[in-house]
Amino acid sequence: MELQQLRYFVAVADTGTFTAAARELHVAQPSVSKQVRKLETELDATLLERRKAGIALTDAGATLLPWARRVLADIDGARSEVAGLASLERGRLSVGATPSLSTVLLPRVLASFHAAHPGVTLSVVEAGSRDLVDRLATSDLDLALVILPLPREELFVTLPLLREELVLAVAKRHPLATRKTVRVGELRGVPLVMFRDGYDLRSATIAACEQAGFHPTFAIEGAEMDGVLRMAAAGVGVAVVPSMVVEKGGPLVAVRLVQPTLTRSVGVAFRRDRHRSRAADAFVARLREFL
User: Fold this and answer.
1) Is the pTM of this model over 0.90?
2) Which of 79, 173, 216, 239 could bond to 232 as cystine, CB 3.0-4.6 Å?
3) Roughly how many angstroms between the first and final C-alpha of the chain, as a whole number?
């Protein structure tokens, strides 16, 4: 099994056709077909079903794909590590972060890191914590800023960073805007702007309400962080969000939640079985400076 075969296979799976994969790889289409056939012969399994509308993964192909991604990610990481890492003059770093951290903290840290190490190529993925954990598990990310504790803890190494309070974000004209605190039980029947599935904030809010004896009422659900804040500011409903995203003097008022007070722990996570690059360590050090 050759790396080129795996790379061609992943490209076809990602693009959906051999022609598109060849265009992305800057090679002739027959070369892609030949390498994928060799891989199928070596594995004694059909990986791709050829259809008029493109290709589809077989069960064998779907099983191989995440493994192929991990192998290629490890190889790319090794090349990056070897190429000038002693001085961090070159390299790549892919960082995942929850929307609240991407909005408030991450831009400053990334700007500082880039100024110190301009040769390191940075990529950022913004998603809910559960989605980031899944992407970290498949080696799509070098590290992720996520909510602790993690599922499948045996796969990861985590470093705690901060504990932040969750507050109720309400429009200035909302009846609750004049309150200093709101009991979770008082949210019974209050329309909430709710995040899409995959956000820890969604599950934390629903769990707190159910612990108080009721299921929350949704004004609207399925939004990302920016959408939640905008809809709350427009008066569509109220939202449970990290305190750091409610800007002082902005269109929203942060009201503390009590009985119980809601908090969450934020940490940085790495794959346990992957070598941690110097770029990743330098990024975490820069992050701790800001915190």
Assistant:
1) no
2) 239
3) 46
